[in-house]
Design a protein that fits this description.
With 111 residues, the chain is mainly α. Helices cover 63% and strands 0% of the residues.
Length: 111
C-alpha cells in the first residue's frame, strides 16, 4: 500500500470519526458543524462530568473533530483514539482500491 493511499484511508477514518463524535452527517455545512461542536463541548466538558476520568480526553477529541471538519486541520490525537470512541462506523464508504473510489473521496473532500 502506498503512502498516499494510507494517508487517504486515515483521513477518511478520521473524518468519519469526527462526524460521529460531533453527531453530524458527512458533508454538513460549517454552521451545522459549529452548532454540533458547541453541543458536544457542553456534553463532554470536564466540569459537567466531574466523575468521568475520560471527560478531558473526550473534550479534546471534540475539539479535534471540530478543527478537522470546520477548519481542515488534522489532529493526531483523533487518529490515535479512533478505535476507542464508541459509535465510530466500521463500514467503508469508499473503496480505495480503485480509481473511482479515490475520485469520489477526493470530490467530497474538496467540493
Amino acid at each position: 500500500m502506498t503512502n498516499s493511499r494510507k494517508r487517504c484511508i486515515c483521513d477518511l477514518k478520521a473524518r468519519r470519526a469526527a462526524c460521529s463524535i460531533l453527531g453530524v452527517a458527512e458533508g454538513e455545512g460549517k454552521k451545522t458543524i459549529k452548532k454540533a461542536y458547541r453541543r458536544a463541548s457542553l456534553k463532554y466538558h470536564p466540569d459537567h462530568n466531574p466523575d468521568d476520568k475520560d471527560a478531558h480526553k473526550r473534550f479534546l477529541l471534540v475539539k479535534c473533530a471540530y478543527e478537522l471538519l470546520a477548519k481542515d486541520i488534522p489532529c493526531d490525537m483523533l487518529l490515535d483514539e479512533i478505535d476507542s470512541w464508541s459509535g465510530v462506523p466500521e463500514d467503508e464508504r469508499y473503496e480505495l482500491d480503485n480509481l473511482w473510489g479515490h475520485f469520489l473521496w477526493w470530490r467530497e473532500k474538496f467540493f
